[in-house]
């Protein structure tokens, strides 16, 4: 089996590469070898590699910058996945495409199911929904994996890394407490995606949309408090003395965020045979990996 993995410069792609490499022949490409804003280049790469499975972990992830760079967000999040799906269909191949909770408007107060109506509130969510539709409409063997609040050791940055950095620089942090979701560690997400490949490639394939996040729902404020508590226990050099809860109105951003974007993971749990790990246990694993040498040696 030949797998094409996109987005290896990012936090999910960098986690997926070593896992997928133990299963199959993987061609892993980042921006320097595959510019997803260039449709012709995508087609050329697909025809040259002729993968059996495409795992599209690449994305334009700037939620706020997408408001002023809508064309670029659509090109990478909408058009590129569509072309990957079209080429996969021509080759008789399969595609796994990673999407987001931002395709929902956040007006529910119970976990979102895979078939709930979408309604993105901003340009980023709109671009990701365009990618979902492009994939589902153009490749029969497809899985769209929606996830949320992703963090990991790789890539440029994420909420956990930001809290650790600011926690070492400041005595006080103000964090939004009226947005609720499910933090997701790339280590768990990458393992789940790898485990889904055989189901997608089976004679009677599992196709459609799946939700996968770590279990448990919290606010950004609660997540920040947990990061600080766990990091302090591991000996991270923190100067932080308090985390202050604020409202979304206190911290205006160019893009609107869904107030509630908890995704139900029951469908994925039924397929994989087990629920996703709890977010706090997975956070602890990542922090242990990132911990200062003197702390991790305790």
Net shape: globular
Taken as a percent bin, the fraction of beta residues is 15-25%
Q: Element order, helices and strands?
A: EHEHEHEHEEHEEEHEEHEHHH
Radius of gyration: 19 Å
CATH fold descriptor of the domain at 2-152 and 184-215 and 261-276: Rossmann fold
User: Helix coverage percent of residues?
Assistant: 40-55%
Number of E strands:
12
Our count of helices gives: 10
Question: How many angstroms separate the termini?
Answer: 43 Å
Largest beta sheet: what is the strand line-up?
2-1-3-4-5-10
* Integer average pLDDT: 95
CATH class of the domain at 2-152 and 184-215 and 261-276, anyone?
Alpha Beta
Spans of 5+ residues with little confidence (pLDDT < 50)?
Answer: 294-298
CATH 4th-level superfamily of the domain at 2-152 and 184-215 and 261-276: NAD(P)-binding Rossmann-like Domain
Report the biggest beta sheet as strand number plus sense, adding barrel if it closes. Answer: 6 strands, parallel
Specify the CATH architecture of the domain at 2-152 and 184-215 and 261-276.
3-Layer(aba) Sandwich
What is the chains' assembly state?
Answer: single chain
Structural class: alpha/beta
Structure description:
This protein is of the alpha/beta class and 298 residues long. The chain has a domain at 2-152 and 184-215 and 261-276: Rossmann fold (3-Layer(aba) Sandwich). Helices cover 41% and strands 16% of the residues. The chain is built from 10 helices and 12 strands. It has helices at residues 11-21, 39-49, 70-91, 123-138, 159-169, 186-200, 220-233, 266-272, 279-290, 293-296; strands at residues 2-6, 25-29, 53-56, 94-100, 142-147, 150-151, 172-176, 180-181, 184-185, 208-211, 218-219, 242-246. A 6-stranded parallel β-sheet has the order 2-1-3-4-5-10, with helices on both faces. Helix 4 links the parallel strand 4 and strand 5. The chain is globular, with a radius of gyration of 19 Å. Residues 294-298 have low confidence and may be disordered.
């Amino acid at each position: 089996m030949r797998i094409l993995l996109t987005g290896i410069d990012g936090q999910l792609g960098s986690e997926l590469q070593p896992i997928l490499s133990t299963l199959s022949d993987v061609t892993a490409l980042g921006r320097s070898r595959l510019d997803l804003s260039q449709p012709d280049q995508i087609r050329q790469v697909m025809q040259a590699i002729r993968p059996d499975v495409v795992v599209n972990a690449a994305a334009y992830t700037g939620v706020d910058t997408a408001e002023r760079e809508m064309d670029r967000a659509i090109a990478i999040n909408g058009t590129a996945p569509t072309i990957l799906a079209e080429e996969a269909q021509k080759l008789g191949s399969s595609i796994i495409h990673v999407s987001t909770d931002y395709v929902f408007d956040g007006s529910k107060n119970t976990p979102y199911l895979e078939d709930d109506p979408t309604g993105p509130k901003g340009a980023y969510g709109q671009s990701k929904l365009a990618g979902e539709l492009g994939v589902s409409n153009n490749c029969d063997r497809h899985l769209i994996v929606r996830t949320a609040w992703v963090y990991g050791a790789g890539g440029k940055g994420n909420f956990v890394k930001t809290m650790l950095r600011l926690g070492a620089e400041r005595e006080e942090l103000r964090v939004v407490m009226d947005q609720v979701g499910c933090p997701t560690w790339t280590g768990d997400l990458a393992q789940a995606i790898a485990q889904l490949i055989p189901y997608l490639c089976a004679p009677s394939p599992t196709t459609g949309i799946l939700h996968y996040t770590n279990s448990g729902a919290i606010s950004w404020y609660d997540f920040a408090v947990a990061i600080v508590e766990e990091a302090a226990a591991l000996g991270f050099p923190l100067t932080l003395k308090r985390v202050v809860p604020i409202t979304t109105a206190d911290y205006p951003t160019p893009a609107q965020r869904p107030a509630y974007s908890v995704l139900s993971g029951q469908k994925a749990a039924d397929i994989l045979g087990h629920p996703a790990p709890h977010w706090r246990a997975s956070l602890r694993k990542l922090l242990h990996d990132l911990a200062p040498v003197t702390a991790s040696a305790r």
